[in-house]
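Retro notes - structure team

What went well: the batch runner handled both jobs without manual restarts.
What didn't: labels got mixed up in the shared folder, which is why I'm recording both outputs here explicitly, each with its sequence directly above its tokens.

Job 1
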Amino acid sequence: MKRPLCVFTMLVAAAVLILIMIFPQDYYSDLPDRAHITQTGEVIGKELKTNSYSGEKELIVKMKLLDRDYHALAYLSPDYEPDIGQIIRVSGECRCFDSARNPGEFDSRSYYRTLKTAYRIKNAKVLGVGGDRDFIKEGMYDLKMSIENVMDSCMEPEDAGIMKAIVLGDKNELDDEIKDIYKRNGIIHIIAVSGLHISLIGLSLYKLLRKTSLWTLPSAIIAATVMYLYGVMCGMSTSAYRAILMFAVRLFADVIGRTYDMLSALSLSAMLLLLEQPLYITNSGFLLSFGAIIGIGYVLPAFPEFIRTGFLKPISASLAITTVTLPVYTSFYYTFPIFSVFLNLLILPLMGVLMLGALLCSAVGALFVPAGQLFGLIDHYILKWFLICCNTGDMLPFGTWYVGHSCAFQVAVYVIMLVAFVLIFQWEKEFGDVKKTEKVKKKGDAKKQENFKKNGDAKNNSREYAKGKGNDGVSDNRKLLMVRYVLLFIGMVVLCYRPSPELKITAVDVGQGVLLSTGTIQ
């Protein structure tokens, strides 16, 4: 069996999802909202945030509650800042997270449950502190704050807020309007610390170390350690964890002289994350992050050749990612940015320059602010270009597809059809290789057999077999090709089908208001 880890991970993920749907877990917090509570826990993270109402700074401390398997967020005054790793006892007002009240609304309670966070403690006061600091995590937090201060000095406030989100994973100062326009145009992924960041920083560091004649093993250890510390500094989100683990597997494969398999590394990271928190399988960020890699490594090879190698090649990867992640959009967001496939072509090639500009700005600006400001100008104009692209996307007609909500049955049918689409392709490719080999052996043509061995890679074999050159199974192959596209089309129709009832009443929770719709009249 090829890639047994991938198959096992898929089965485990499906089983976890079914169990969660049949036996939904209770929320962690059973405390009444606005109750006065006192809790003790270990500080495992913190961030400084500006209150959107008062405009004042407040310190948000993430606590792992003692004798509990969940966390709480304590909102403290920045006058006193405990260190990461210390044990603190705080008292304040318990504020539970809100569930989604309207269709398509962000579900804070479900999101924080995935992060094992039960509730917030507002207006918290520290009653006691003990224990030792975690020097590594606290040191990375101090480094993060230093970099942010340099960015504030060398960049305009709006640019600094965006770059803090892109480079450091700190979205607290990201302008809501910028965040919304990025989301509408399908480029919100650029502000998530993910494989793009790890590839740009980690691989560059690894290649630089190798060019210094340092052995492979020490180079891999140093690069992997630096990327781990970078992930710790940025908060170690699911996308960052996935990217760092896949990066480490890639380096390890290089060390032992084995071929790196992207899908097996992806399966390993998914398995570890689900073991740590099964509810990740219901998190849109988790699904989008892993879906993007599945689209590139699993679905893209099954696309027709004219898409993968023809004039559509520049957008082929985006099309494959869209094919996999479309159910996530229909399940969580109810809309899909159509022009995101093309906007990413204008934006992603500049991400390397953007990241390099931010790193140089932070490093040089720490020594001499005016020099750092020059590098900050590079990022300023790149971000302006991003904004121009997004504004242009907003002006184009039919830029957003209001696809609506897909139920679990529709998503299941689509996923089954998509898996069948790829499996038939793989079986077809293997069958074509076998038939071609048998034909060459039967003829006993040594020259053809040598050419086959030389040029008989999977891509050429599948292309020759698809064309049916000298093959008795041409008609069967074309039938399979037709079946694949019909299955994918059926899955797309089922996923996006929205029956219109004669009468539909929707009560929107905005304080007041009822929406009545009958057919096309609202």
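Job 2
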Amino acid sequence: MKRRVAVLISGRGSNMVALIEAAATPDFPAEIAVVVANRADASGLEKARAHGVATEVIESRPFGADRAGFEAALSARLEAHGIELICLAGFMRLFTAQFTQTWQGRMLNVHPSLLPSFPGLDPHGQALRAGVKLSGATVHFVTAETDAGPIVMQEAVVVKDDDTTETLSARILEAEHRIYPQALRLLAEGRLAGRGWCLVWTRGALAPGSIDSRSIASQVKEPDMMLPNSPEGRDVAYQLHPYTNARAHQENGPLVIVRGEGPYVYDAAGRRYFEALSGLWCVALGFSEKRLMDAACRQMQTLPFGHSFTSRAHLPSIDLAEKLVSLAPSPMSKVFFTNSGSEANDTILKLIAYRSNALGEPRRKKVISRMRAYHGVTLASASLTGLPANHGSFDLPLPNHFHTGAPHFYREGELGESEEEFASRRAEELEALILREGPETIAAFFGEPVMGAGGVVVPPVTYWDRIQEVLRKYDILLVADEVICGFGRTGRMFGCETYAITPDVMVVSKQITSGYFPLSAILMNARMFEPIADETSRIGVLGHGFTAGGHPVGTAVALETIKIIEERDLVAHAARMGAYMQSRLAAFADHPLVGEVRGVGLIAALELVLDKKTRRAAATPGAIGTIANRLLVERGILTRNMADAVAICPALIVDQAQIDELVDGFKSMLEALPAAVVGLAPAELARSWKTACAVPVRPLDALCPPAGSNHAFLPRSLPTWGSRGTVSGPPSGPGDGDDPAVVDRQRDLAVFEPQRRLAE
């Protein structure tokens, strides 16, 4: 007779579905009698019932305020069903000591990463690692891979309460068997039954007898301690993620990517995803360019480290500096190497102050960037960035940082205004800010040719012409942040070429190494360099630099990256494929939830709205974009939404068939989107979507973003700033409060325009 097993799950319940399907096979060693679900989706419960599994849903969270009450109710339910074993199928936080003692020896942690061990999923067992350690004895399973990929069990060792060990069997499983059902069979047969025994899964080819059982036993201390062994579990236990809601991450866990090939990446379950954002706007040559790996390996073998302090140099950095100066769209004099775009922009701010002092202009220290700009996350570069999430609770921006309006005509153009008129207005606003602060105090203006993280904002016609006129008029340096645009992204080698920008300083990173090695570079013209050089002579040193700046491996990889881009003519290829991609995306402009399709070259975005006429999005900025992003992940596409703009930025090597695949995935997402967001809009809009999209409209509450959604640019309320800044959109005119389009515009401006620096 099969043992009765309960499955405890949380979240969407996809892991439970896999368990239910496995339990439906005749040779499964246990009967799943009860599914105790915490916020499980309806599809999982329906599938459980379809297989004849008794289901019971508990809505409260096991690690909430009433955890003891939940656990008491849970134990009662499980005992009533005669449960002998609990499978923790999902990332469940720690239970109380009382609960774990009650169920000691009858708990098996099965993280979602373990589920691919079922037939038909993840034949390579890439993510087979999950476990629990409780007080008392421990069972340690050691696994390995054959050359062909299947997982085999090499050894199972029981660490008993008296710290003696017993080897149950060598090679319990053959290569064709799956570990999870076999391990559960051992429990079902009672071979591992006993006080305090549980399973610890470990991946790695350890020889029999190599396990230090005493060290394992010594780690087992607290009766309520769960030590994660899955990649997902260990990630949640030990890592703080950037641009992530840490509490939501603790509950939901990560998507673990294990390998890449071309423009695709694969998760721990072997599922393929189209990396539609090239990682983070950076993997120009795809995820498997062997020439870059070989370049790194050769340099590692030749000179694995070298620095450029105190007049030292090495060949890769010399060659790369020369190459970058030769590629620059306007005359440049010198290159300074850093490790990231943030470090580069931070360094430029220091060098600007250094230069102003050298010129005898100590008041010229103020800098201007734009609302929605992204220039990094260090204290100084984050102050340049114009996004609320990068300022709120960080006590930023720092003094002397000012922000003018973003060049987003769709969102910030006035009624009846042409693109040229909008560009002129933005230039006039910049000039007004300069005059208010005093031209003699403004040192530099920072701008991305095309804004990236601010929502892929493509500048309108004449915008950069008018901005440069103002900067030249007041002798203000222009810093072009080419971190995303550089090396072919816009269909030219640099975004400055695409928009006829003549910068004094350029910042490059990301695609310079195709993301294979951290590296960034600052290119500066003589106007920038010469005063700095004079000041180093006066002081005796340039007191700035980074240990890994201009690292020989990174610069060698960058040289090979540029060589490949030139040899394969990838800039022209990006222009051709970009034109094709933009033409295909343009077909979405008529979709009732697409407000704007924008882009240039191989970078684009879809701006999602609930009402095209008023350009209104949901009450919570980013709600629609977050849902769209989830729908894309379900369709095997990884990208990123910046509020309600979903970005597209494939590798430069992408071909036409792959663009078709990508665009078709977006089409499928848009077909599902009206049903997914119907709860966010009035009923009359939902009816119009149904007619326009010809798809059934039904509420999908599970897809709506929860409180604390894992989204970097999703403020739950308007940000507040220090006494030196304010948050506001343009002042309302007479009657504006009655116009929903104006109200919506003001809301968007309040969210995306972090502050308008006022004169003290």
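One thing worth noting from job 2: Residues 656-677 form the longest helix (22 residues).
We'll revisit the folder naming next retro.
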